[in-house]
Structures are given as structure tokens and as C-alpha cells.
């Protein structure tokens, strides 16, 4: 069953058409990836779905709710959140306070404590640095924090925008392992990546985005072996 | 003990500036706009106090002033600024100046152009360590300190307070936490306006006459204080306010330079900005690539 369904989504920046009516869906339990080059419209897709930038036309449904016109903070309350591009953790707050912000939609103290322990077990580095100001963390640690902060809200759908950006190969592997882990625990994942090889390997299905249109779709394996994807995104 | 009385005078004056500067700095930090109508909220508070003091209700006057100022602050945000969310900063700035003149003109139409006297807040003097101190200054200082402490704790330890920090840092990321940014901006205007009402009260302690441009000069000076402290920073506004108060009170005491008090204050602002463009506690934001 489709958890997220996007139909004919169009987004404009002024007069420039960034998304030319794309349609795709993410089914419950899946990992779905959008791959594409810089400027293809991946981040635009992510941000318009969650309500951070306005949609020109099209319909977005989440579960059985039409969220096309729902403001971002309400969408998050419905169980969808996003690890934004560039992580965007709260630099001046401590690691702990960032996680506290992640649980903003759920003020229940007891369940917060439980979630916090779970995050600290999953990300031991964050536990070590719980009182450190987040701006002083390394890039990898900031990415862990951004992911931890996002899952504090118990999303049904977790969207990650370029989580591997700027990380060392070792950390990239770790990030993809964590994504698989989160998915195994029952969270549906929508992933946007430039690292096509790694993301297709963990994806159930994937879409290729080019100049604001979806040009190819299929399972992760199908796309990884497609001539066009190999040429354009896998370096041969 | 000239020194002690000058110091307390400066601190109470500074407490008053800090109350106003906090409004500027919080709105700037969270809504990213300079609310130049903020000073006029002080005037709204002062006229409200005048109305109730004419009925001899000193306590109700204070509560009513806070209530009316909060109402004005929230309505101004909703009617004048909210529709401009995302518009150019210049458009918002011009709107704020327009709101400022609107409030001043409305006050003139309603209350006339002659100053109104507010009597009833006289507390007399006390001897403290050999110095003559006005009780009203001690009240101002005490109340301002308590309010600043409460505000600091509020921002650090409450859900809403932390949401305010999150919004001031990154509106988009804050929304992704489920924070309603419009609501946080409204709360910020409400808090800033309540503090302006208190500033209006403290002002009347010192000089009991109300006019329609009463808020203009304190507003500009408190804005200066906010910039000196680092605009956007709450402790910065407190520090800047107190500093400006002491500077003003000291220069006022030295008769040779007393007529130039305002000039000296703004000169110091210029010097501080030349040396530290972000103010004392302002953030030097790292630009992310």
C-alpha cells in the first residue's frame, strides 16, 4: 500500500520550472531512492513534499490524507520528517538539546527518555558528546545527530536528503548501514542521493530524476544494471 | 557617595533600556526583521497607564498596560508584518516605520498633542551607604533584573523557549521538528510587547509626562543597546542595555559633557561597531559551503 503518493507535482522558482509534473509513490516498508545529478530537482522534490517550499500544482497524499496544502509543522505531526540537505542541526544547541528538539511533537517525558536511550545506543558517539555544542561536532557526527534528531519524532516515513554528502568513504558505509537498520525497524525510507551505487544497492525501488522529470523507474537492481544509469551515474 | 547614586541611576536606566532592547533583539533573532514600531509600544503602554491612573488604579494600570501592549504587538504582527513574510527586508522595514507613524498619529488624534501627566507613582528617597537613592530606581532595577532572569530561564528550559532558539537559528529545520514558526513569532512579539509595557511604566517612574512620541528616543537608544550587545542575542541585549544606561548616567553627571550625552552614546555605538561589527555577544556565523 502506498504510504506516500505524489501525483503530477509541479514546482516553480519564480518563472523557472524546477519540477515538471513528477509522479511516484513510496510503499509502506520500502526504501525508495531518487537519484539524479546536481540541479535535477531532488532537493526541490523533498522540500516541496514536506511543505517547506510551495507546490504549484499536483497532489501529495500521505497515508489516506491529502497533504498538498498542509503546512510543514503539521505534516511532521502526521509522521513524516526529513533529514535535510546539509544536515541543518541546531549549531548553538547541545547534542542533547538537538535531540530534545527532535522530540518536539511528543512532549511525553517517559517516552522521550526511552527514545533518547535508544538513540544513544544506536549512536554511541552522540552519547559520548551529549553535552557538547552541536556546531563543534565533526561532519560525520553531525550527520548522525541529524538522523537521530529526525527519528526522535517516530516518523512513519523518514526522508533523507543526501545523507552521504561530504563524508569519508568509511562514514558513507556507516550511514547506509544505519539507513538499512532504521528501515528494518519498520520505518519507510525515501532517500535522495548522488551516490547512486550505494543507494541503489539498499533500495527496493528507485527513480531517476533529470531536469525536473522522472526519466526512469524500476527496482534498485534493475536500475543499477541499466545501461543509462551506469553511464550517467555509476561512472561507466 | 555621588558614585553609588550615579551607578544605581545608570543601572536602573540600563534596566529600562534592556527591557526595550530585548524586544528588538528577540524579534530580530526570530522574525529576522527590525521592528521600528517597537518603541511606540512603550507609548501605548504609557497612555494605558495614564487612563487607569486617572481612575486611581495603579495596579490595574500595570496589568492593563501589559495586556494592551501585548494585544497591539500581536495585532501589528498579524496585520502588518505577517503578510510580508518572505518579502524583501526593505519592504518590511518601511512597513515598520509606517506602523510607527500610524501609532503616533493615532495617539495624537485620541489624546491630543498636549502632554498628559501621570501622578501617583511617587516612592520618595532612601539613604543607602550614605547616598541618596530614589526608591523608584531600586524598584526598576529589581524588577528588570527579575524579568531578565525569568526570560533567560524561560528560553533555556521551556519547550517554547527552546523552539524560539531553534526558529532563530534555522526556520526550515525548526519546521521539520514540528514547530509552528508563525506561532513562535507571535509569542515573540507578545513577550517583546509585554517588556515594552514595563519599560513604559519605568519611564513614568522617572518623568510622569506622556506624549505621542514618548517611545521614539528610548526606542532608538534601546535599539542601539541591542546592536552594541549583538543584535539577536538575548544576553547581549541585557548587557548592551545596562552598558548604555551607565554610559548615559555617567556622561550626564559630568556637567562639561552633559549636553552631549546623546551624541556620546551614539559615538560609542559607532566605535564599538567599527571594532566589533557584530556587537559584544553577536554571533559570527560560519558561512556553510
Overview of the structural elements:
Chain A is of the alpha/beta class and 236 residues long. Chain A has ten helices and ten strands. Chain A is 39% helix and 28% strand. In chain A, a hairpin with a 2-residue loop joins strand 1 and strand 2 (16-27). In chain A, helix 3 (95-102) runs parallel beside helix 6. The radius of gyration of chain A is 17 Å and the shape is globular. In chain A, 46% of the residues are buried. The mean pLDDT of chain A is 94. Chain B has one domain: ABC transporter involved in vitamin B12 uptake, BtuC. Chain B contains eleven helices and four strands. In chain B, a hairpin with a 2-residue loop joins strand 2 and strand 3 (131-134). Chain B is globular, with a radius of gyration of 19 Å. The chains are: A alpha/beta (236), B mainly alpha (289). At the A-B interface, helix 2 and helix 3 of A face helix 6 and helix 7 of B.
Features:
heterodimer; A: 236 residues; alpha/beta; six-stranded mixed β-sheet; four-stranded antiparallel β-sheet; 39% helix; 28% strand; B: 289 residues; mainly alpha; ABC transporter involved in vitamin B12 uptake, BtuC; 11 helices
Strand content of chain A: 25-35%
Q: In total, how many domains does the architecture of chain B comprise?
A: 1
Per the principal axes of the C-alpha atoms, what is the gross shape of chain A? Answer: globular
Low confidence ranges of chain B: none
Mean pLDDT of chain B: 92
Instruction: Strand order, main sheet of chain B: write it out.
Output: 1-4
Tally the helices of chain A: 10
Number of strands of chain A: 10
- Tell me the helix content of chain B: over 70%
Amino acid at each position: 500500500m502506498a504510504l506516500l503518493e505524489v501525483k503530477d507535482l509541479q514546482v516553480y522558482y519564480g518563472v523557472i520550472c524546477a519540477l515538471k509534473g513528477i509522479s511516484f509513490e513510496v510503499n509502506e516498508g520500502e526504501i525508495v531512492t531518487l537519484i539524479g545529478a546536481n540541479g535535477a530537482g531532488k532537493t526541490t522534490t523533498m522540500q516541496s513534499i514536506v511543505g517547506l517550499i510551495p507546490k504549484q500544482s499536483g497532489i501529495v497524499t500521505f497515508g489516506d490524507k491529502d497533504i498538498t496544502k498542509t503546512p510543514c509543522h503539521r505534516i511532521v505531526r502526521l509522521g513524516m520528517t526529513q533529514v535535510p540537505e546539509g544536515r541543518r542541526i541546531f549549531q548553538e544547541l547541545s547534542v542533547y538539546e538537538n535531540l530534545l528538539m527532535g522530540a518536539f511533537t511528543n512532549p511525553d517525558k517517559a517516552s522521550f527518555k526511552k527514545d533518547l536511550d535508544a538513540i544513544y545506543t544506536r549512536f554511541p558517539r552522540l552519547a559520548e558528546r551529549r553535552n557538547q555544542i552541536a556546531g563543534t561536532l565533526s561532519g560525520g557526527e553531525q550527520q548522525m545527530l541529524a538522523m537521530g534528531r529526525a527519528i526522535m519524532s517516530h516518523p512513519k516515513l523518514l526522508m533523507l536528503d543526501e545523507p552521504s554528502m561530504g563524508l569519508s568513504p568509511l562514514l558513507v558505509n556507516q550511514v547506509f548501514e544505519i539507513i538499512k537498520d532504521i528501515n528494518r525497524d519498520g520505518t519507510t525510507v525515501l532517500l535522495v542521493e548522488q551516490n547512486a551505487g550505494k543507494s541503489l544497492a539498499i533500495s527496493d525501488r528507485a527513480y531517476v530524476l533529470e531536469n525536473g522529470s522522472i526519466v526512469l523507474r524500476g527496482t534498485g537492481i534493475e536500475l543499477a544494471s541499466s545501461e543509462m544509469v551506469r553511464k550517467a551515474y555509476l561512472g561507466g | 557617595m555621588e558614585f553609588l547614586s550615579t551607578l544605581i541611576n545608570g543601572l536602573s536606566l540600563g534596566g529600562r533600556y534592556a527591557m526595550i532592547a530585548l524586544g528588538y533583539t528577540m524579534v530580530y533573532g526570530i522574525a529576522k526583521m527590525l521592528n521600528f514600531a517597537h518603541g511606540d509600544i512603550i507609548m501605548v503602554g504609557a497612555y494605558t497607564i495614564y487612563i487607569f491612573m486617572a481612575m486611581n488604579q495603579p495596579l490595574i494600570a500595570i496589568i492593563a498596560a501589559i495586556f494592551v501592549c501585548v494585544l497591539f504587538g500581536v495585532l501589528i504582527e498579524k496585520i502588518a508584518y505577517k503578510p510580508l513574510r518572505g518579502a524583501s527586508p526593505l519592504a518590511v522595514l518601511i512597513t515598520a516605520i509606517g506602523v510607527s507613524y500610524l501609532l503616533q498619529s493615532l495617539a495624537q488624534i485620541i489624546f491630543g498633542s498636549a502632554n498628559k501627566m501621570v501622578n501617583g507613582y511617587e516612592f520618595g528617597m532612601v539613604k543607602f551607604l550614605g547616598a541618596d537613592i530614589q526608591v523608584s530606581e531600586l524598584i526598576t532595577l529589581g524588577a528588570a533584573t527579575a524579568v531578565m532572569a525569568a526570560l533567560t530561564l524561560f528560553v533555556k528550559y521551556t519547550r517554547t523557549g527552546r523552539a524560539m532558539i531553534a526558529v532563530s537559528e534555522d526556520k526550515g529545520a525548526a519546521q521539520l521538528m514540528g514547530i509552528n514558526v508563525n506561532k513562535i513569532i507571535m509569542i515573540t512579539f507578545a513577550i517583546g510587547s509585554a517588556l515594552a509595557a514595563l519599560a513604559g511604566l519605568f519611564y513614568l517612574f522617572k518623568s510622569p509626562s506622556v506624549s505621542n512620541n514618548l517611545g521614539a528616543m528610548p526606542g532608538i537608544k534601546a535599539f542601539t543597546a541591542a546592536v552594541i550587545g549583538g543584535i539577536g542575542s538575548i544576553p547581549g541585549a541585557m548587557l548592551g542595555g545596562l552598558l548604555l544606561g551607565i554610559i548615559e548616567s555617567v556622561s550626564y553627571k559630568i556637567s562639561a559633557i552633559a549636553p552631549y550625552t546623546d551624541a556620546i552614546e551614539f559615538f560609542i555605538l559607532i566605535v564599538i561597531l567599527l571594532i566589533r561589527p557584530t556587537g559584544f555577544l553577536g554571533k559570527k556565523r560560519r558561512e556553510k559551503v
